[in-house]
Amino acid sequence: MSELVAAEDVLLFVNAAVTATGQREFRSSAGEQRLSLAFLHAYVRVNYRQVYAASLALDINDHNAALIVEHLLRTPAEAGPGEGRLIAARLALLPPQRVYRLFRALRAAKVNNRRTRAIVREWIAARPDPALDAVKYRPGVKTALRHVHGPAADPETGDFLFAPRRRVRYGSPLLDAYRRAHYEQAALYELPFTVAEGFAAKHGVPRALFLERIAPRMTRFERLRTERTAGNTKDWSAVPLTRLAVYVLSLPFAERVARRGELTGALRAAARRAAGPHAGSWGRVAAVLDDSFSSSGSAVKRRRPLAVALGCHFLLEALAAPGAYTPLWTSGGDDPLLVRPYGPTPLGLRVLDALETGPERLVIVSDGWDNAPPGLAGEVLRVWRTRLDPERRTSVVHLNPVYDAGGFDVRRLAPGVPTAGVRDAEDLPALVEIAQFAEGRTGFGELRDYLDRRVEAFLKGAGG
Amino acid sequence: MTRIDLGGLDARPAQVWGGVRLVPLVRSEPVAGLRLRREVYEGAGTASVELGDRTAYTSYVPHGFVADWSGSRQDGESAAYGTLLGDRTDGPPPCVPVRRVHRPAKRRRGERRLRFLPLHLALEGYLALHFGGPSVVWDDWSREAVRRGLSPRAEAAYAGWDVPGLGEALRVFELHPGQCGTLLYVADALAAAFVVPHPEDYRVLHPTLVEDLYGELVHQYAHYGAPVPEFTARIRDGAGGVRTLTDLRAAALGQERAWAAAHDGLMARDLLETSYSFERVYRAGEFDLYRFLPPFRRDGREQHIGELITDHKGRAAYLKTFRLSEKQVRKGYLLHRLADHDWHLGRTAEALGTTYPELVRRIGAAGLGGLLDAHVVARKAKGAREG
Question: The CATH number of the domain where A359 resides is what?
């Protein structure tokens, strides 16, 4: 019994760590989300320390990865073996701004044990371009170095950070460009985009001109973000599926129609990349995708649930055997490019429609608030499983992009339906695998074996 | 006409948020020839309405509604005023900023539309109940009451955003396609009914529910009531129940029908089966604007006041109600009984099966004690005690 409870707790935490970002959601405020998440982290850390550390190897989101690292470093007395390697490997994957923010949090919490100092120093030493970090994340680098009493990468960077008036000019071109950009407009375009933006405002450079000239210095997400104002043509090959879906949903309908071929092509290509070797291997697939009003997310997560559903639509299309995929939107629409978050969630009837096509796999992407009528989807799935399909010819998985703060988990449709949290549509194959543990029939031992395998693969990938 | 007819409107499954339950009402096709839109007034929501004869009606007015019955006749007149029929691709309708509002229901000259302030007709109807005061000058009544009637009467109400949880419930509510109305329950007591002629109107006017007035009862229920449960679907799949997918679908659809029937017969029964006294305020084409008052019976049923626009068949095209609290019902009941017996306290007490001092106490408890002549009442009460 306790084994089952443990397995349930761990899955619940993994679901939360994949979906929750501490931001406002459609039905709960940022405060509620953070409070709920903080409790969950403390609970799992105290009761299942090893699993807590091991979840760093899973596809959890960056917000939770940083939180886990912080919690682990704050409680060094209970540390288990191998934690340090996991933390280092995960920090290497996190975006630098998040890591610097984590270091700042550690400093604010006065966590300065030996392990923390070693990890911070190691991470900073591994940064590929110290001068770039010093320019782009200047306050973060300063705080981190001060906190661990570490030396800067070289004397010049040290002076740049802590005694900027000591030198008249710098040998490193980037540091020197930062110095010159204070009074010289041309030097602006040698700096990273975020830093140059401030200087451009200071010099009064017109936005369009600035965006055009800084384009080569932008990262790919910065390019995607400014694409509409800059109007430059886009190379879609590097953009992940869910980001692309968010971008498509941000366009007005007229533009989506006008660029239909280009956008559909880009989404299909991204889905094929995400599917990789699994493409076409899933047989007959039916999907119930939620485009009800609640999929509009919140002001900080605009249309995120809908974007995940749209990403899943294209990914499932790639995963299914050619021509054997049936998408069913809750609104009844059939044009994925023109979806909009509107209307109620008649999930039960859509699940029935999907089951009528006789699929091998049924994937439901929804926030779990089934309201027209409430609870019908759960009933339909329960009756289907107990009366009509006891041999399990159809496997059903529910993917939920929204963390339910009140329930400390993603909201479930029915107890018998495995539910997994999802943040990025491209993680779908891995999530379907982990969701199978959520049916309540596998014990903690199997789950731990699975986690060990994932940790091993993760560390091998990080080392190699 | 004695009842509210919600013909053409079907109840869809309710959505619950905390203690608030919202039941969407869906029309299969909109009412032809009538549109409502919102008119936003300048200022912080207070408005003064001139009633003529140098009296002013000052009130909290978050917005007004404009009823437009220019119909599908695309004649020059309605086009000139930018009729709201047809597709609305040209953005929101132009708002007419009005600082001073004339009459709670008013038709601007030459226009085929009527502006009225939501719920004000209904509230006015309730507040003005037997406004004239005693019709026979019994000596129990003070001179003030005889000369000036029951003025000033006052009733307290809460704005929607003071009702805990209501704003959030309205925000997360998912509108149904074709939805033209909502029944709003707080702690499973019907707090308000709101119906408009066209789904597009409803989409625009849905947020105005949070700006409306709600009685004391609604506020208290929302404050102290626990979250209400959802009526989740249950499919009976016992022996021989569900064999195929078709059976399952039939059972699922049956659940939806069962909910609609249960709702109309159980939850909205008091609203739909009470017989009201209607008063026609305005007639426009084939539409009639009424206000209505409940029978003020003291049998524990819900009592609503409200306003209604009906089409030529008597079906509701627009409906807005206000739930009276128990105290307000008692007051209305008392006034009716007094009026029935020509404001004679002794005869009224007899008809109510009570005594003279008890009736005086009741009048005092209803907040109308100031209208009695204290000396006369004290003398009579003493006489009743000693006799």
Answer: 3.40.50
| CB–CB contact B13 A374 (8 Å) | yes
Residue B284 lies in a domain: no
- Chain B residues lying within 8 Å of A378, measured CB to CB: 232
Asked if residue A336 belongs to a domain, the reply is yes
Q: Which residues of A110-124 are buried (b: 16+ CB within 10 A; e: fewer)?
A: ebeeeebeebbbebb
In total, the C-beta contacts within 8 angstroms joining chain A to chain B are: 87
The domain of B137 spans: 9-87+94-229+244-270
Q: Which of A295, A371, A389 to substitute to test the interface with B, most B CBs within 10 Å? A: A371
Classify residue B278: in a domain, yes or no: no
Q: What b/e string do you get for B84-119 counting C-beta neighbours within 10 Å, with b at 16 or more?
A: bbeeeeeeebeeeebeebeebbeeeeeebbbbbbbb
Q: What ipTM was assigned to the predicted interfaces of this complex?
A: 0.85
Question: Is the Cβ of B16 closer than 8 Å to some Cβ of chain A?
Answer: yes
Q: Say if A456 falls within a structural domain.
A: no
Interface residues on A facing B, Cβ-Cβ cutoff 8 A: 26-27, 292-294, 331, 342-345, 348-349, 352, 355-356, 371-376, 378-380, 382-384, 386-388
Indicate whether B40 and B184 sit together in one domain.
Answer: yes
- Nearest by CB to A375, from B174, B233, B248: name it: B233
Four-CA torsion A132, A134, A137, A140, nearest 10 degrees: 150
What span, in angstroms and rounded, lies between the C-alpha atoms of B153 and B133? 11
Residue-wise pLDDT tens digits, B323-334:
888 888 888 888
Nearest-by-CA chain A residue for B18 = A27
**Locate tokens 């022996």: which residue?**
B239
What is the residue range of A169's domain? 2-195
| Closest of A13, A108, A124, A19 to residue A63, by C-alpha | A19
pLDDT in tens, B120-158: 667 777 776 666 667 777 778 777 777 766 666 677 788
What would the DSSP string read from start to end of A52-67?
HHHGGGSS--HHHHHH
B222 and B357 fall within a common domain: no
Contact A26 B12 (CB under 8 A): no
Compare CB distances from B242 to A27, A331, A383 and report the shortest one's residue. Answer: A383
**In a domain? residue B282:** no
Cis amide prior to B30 (ω within 30 degrees): no
> Domain tally for chain B?
2
Nearest Cα of chain A lies from the Cα of B186 at a distance, in angstroms, of 18
Q: Which pTM value belongs to this model?
A: 0.86
The CA distance from B128 to the nearest CA of chain A, in Å, is: 42
Out of A26, A375, A383, closest to residue B230 by CB: A375
Crossing angle (nearest 10°) for helices A62-74 and A114-125: 140
Query: Quick check: B214 and B192 in contact, CB under 8 A?
Result: yes
User: A27: which chain B residues are within 8 Å (Cβ-Cβ)?
Assistant: 172
Residue A271 in domain: yes
Q: Beta strand pairing status for B189-195 and B179-186?
A: antiparallel
Q: Tell me the pLDDT of chain A (464 aa) as tens digits.
A: 677 788 888 888 999 999 999 999 999 999 999 999 999 999 999 999 999 999 999 889 999 999 999 999 999 999 888 899 999 999 999 999 999 999 999 999 999 999 999 999 999 999 999 999 999 999 999 999 999 998 998 999 999 999 988 999 999 999 999 999 999 999 999 999 999 999 999 999 999 899 989 988 888 888 888 876 655 556 778 789 999 999 999 999 999 999 999 999 999 999 999 998 888 889 999 999 999 999 999 999 999 999 999 999 999 999 999 989 999 999 988 899 999 999 999 999 999 999 999 899 999 999 999 888 888 999 999 999 888 888 888 889 999 999 999 889 999 988 888 889 999 998 888 888 777 777 766 677 888 888 899 899 999 887 65
Check A387 against B243: CB less than 8 A apart: yes
* For A292, nearest residue in chain B (alpha carbons): B174
Same domain, yes or no: B349 and B200: no
